[in-house]
Amino acid sequence: MKSSTTLFATLAVAAFGFTSVHAADPSPKELQRVVNEAHARYKDLRDGKNADYIPILTKTPSELFGVVIATKDGKIYAAGDVDYKFSIQSVSKPFTAALVMTQQGPTVLEEKIGVEPTGLPFNSRLAIELYKEERSVNPLVNAGAIAAVSLVQASSEADRWNKVLGNISDFAGTPLTVLEDVYESEYTTAFGNRAIANLLYNYERLYSDPEEAMRVYTRQCSIGVSARDLAMMGATLANLGVNPLTRKRVMNANDVPELLAVMATAGFYDESGEWMYTAGLPAKTGVGGGIVAVVPGKFAIAAFSPRLNEAGNSVRSLNAIRDIAGELGVGVFGPNPR
Ligand code: DON
Fold it and tell me: How far apart are CA 94 and CA 292, in angstroms?
């Protein structure tokens, strides 16, 4: 199983060279045009529904929709509701995985979490039983993300939380805060995640007290971000780990290709294959309605809209980002035909 992921990472690295050398950089006018057009094309699409297993997410206005590109030098091209603060949810996961890689080196993900796509829903307990070696499977599903939080090197729970929040804020280039009502709503109903944390602890694949990991993980998912923030976080990955606004190095350049490989294979959960087939970009989704995709070495495309499909991915956001990737011809394996 490990060899297929290694192959994928190698292809992604090769593709990085391909896109940066051969694809012409789109002009500012073209970037603004594709953003405007994608927003206009999908603003009336009403497929899907708000997440409801976290009760408060049903209250996010479903009509909100924003699309934004942030380039590796910090330029923004935006349309719609790009400044509305919503909960980051699973879009946080690769960024905490990056923190763990920075603290302990990239092999820690393979050794202590896993890097295999599951082909199963994001909250699958079955995956923990099926993957008897990895258990938590990869840092982008709930199990692996809770394990990643537990792996953050910290002297106390407060220190663990400050490191997680500080790191995600550094990726965004601006101080972020928790949406406390989202935290309360999720933490008081998170019985499935609590089962996952305890199961991992039972299998010695959780590395802190389970309830501490639960609290910090749930707070991480409740951080408020805008689509603009998500785009800047993605642009930091596109810029090989340096935030385009603050110029702060947030992660090692050498770790970026491996992180993007996990985003490419698992960023859309059980829709990751379909996503890579049609959009061709490493990306991460969240049940708050946010998605960020990365064009390595160039820019990030982010979108926000609360209505989700069955896999928990924002319908308008995924359509908008996929179209923009196709129109600009920036898929990592070469231009996608649609
Ligand atoms: O743990 C959860 O279920 C949520 N805090 C995050 C799930 C999520 O965003 C899945 N993404 N599409």
Answer: 11
pLDDT in tens, 150-200: 999 999 999 999 999 999 999 999 999 999 999 999 999 999 999 999 999
Q: Cα of 336 to ligand 1 centre, how many Å?
A: 29
Around ligand 1, the residues with Cβ closer than 6 Å are 89-90, 122-123, 142, 186, 193, 221, 285-287, 312-313
Measured between alpha carbons, how far is 197 from 195 in angstroms, rounded to an integer? Answer: 6
Distance between the two ends of the chain, CA-based, in angstroms? 31
Give, to the nearest 10 degrees, the angle between helix 191-202 and helix 142-151. 60
Distance 238 CA to ligand 1 centre (A): 24
3-class DSSP state for residue 78? strand
pLDDT tens column, 283-311: 999 999 999 999 999 999 999 999 999 99
Statement: the pTM of the whole predicted model exceeds 0.90: yes
Answer whether 260's CB lies under 8 Å from 282's CB.
yes
Write the CB contacts of 153 (distance below 8 Å, at least 6 apart in sequence): 103, 104, 163
Q: Is residue 167 packed enough to be buried (19+ CB in 10 Å), middle (13-18) or exposed (0-12)?
A: buried
Q: Which of 153, 171, 163, 165 is nearest to 104 (CA)?
A: 153
87 forms beta bridges with 224
DSSP 8-class letter at 306? S
Rounded to the nearest angstrom, the distance between the alpha carbon of 287 and the centre of ligand 1 is: 5
Which of the two residues, 99 and 8, has the higher pLDDT score? 99
Decide which of 133 and 174 is more confident.
174
pLDDT range class, residue 24, cuts 50, 70, 90: confident
